[in-house]
Amino acid sequence: MQxxxxxxxYTPPPGAxxxxxxxxLGWDPVExxxxxxxEIEGLPQxxxxxxxxxxxxxxxxxxxxxFFLAEGxxxxxxxxxxxxxxATLAPITLDGLVLARLGGFIALKVDxxxxxxxxxxxxxxxxxxxxxxxxxxxxxxxxxKANLSPAQEALLAQWGYPYVMxxxxxxxxxxxxxxxxxxATMEALGPHFAPILPRPFAVDSLTLVGEDGDGMFHEIxxxxxxx
Length: 227
Known about the structure:
Elements lengths: L4 E6 L5 H10 L1 E2 L4 E2 L12 H4 L10 E7 L7 H12 L5 E3 L1 E7 L2 E7 L3 H13 L9 H8 L5 H10 L11 E3 L8 H12 L7 E3 L1 E7 L5 E8 L3
Antiparallel strand pairs: 1-4, 1-10, 2-3, 5-9, 6-7, 7-8, 10-11
């Protein structure tokens, strides 16, 4: 399959969290197919509507944001570099994941100190950056609509994305912007996530992903961290 953009994600390994996550979002990036949503009582709006925005990405936490390939590079070289990089990176263990409100949407975030994960993400951003094409003027304009701080503007200029390095905040997005429905959605989701959230939270592999022509992301390769 040909992909238009590539990225590096944390994706849950096979198990309860991965299974519920692909059902909740309605997309399985491993198999590259849609999945039937679960029946959940108490939601203020339908699951399909709640998850429409993040569906295409699958259940993930961004490590290196999606990018177009730079001129003179190719997908085969990117995969080889990704595999070699993962062989130099050590797995990390954090306290856990929790269901949280992030502004107007719902996500899973790190419970406790995320510094080791931020360092890991920074290394991936740096070491794969020569595969990233510079952002277009349209991409830059879209990012700048978020009223970036000077620090975020500098990161956008250097790395093509404003929320990396010191601005990195790991999260696994579960919804689009919900407005007044955030609290009710969290209350309905809480009992479903509580028994399957990892504690401790181990990051012992990373996933290279690709975006197809319809904007849906697929797992290309999951690689263990063995450094």
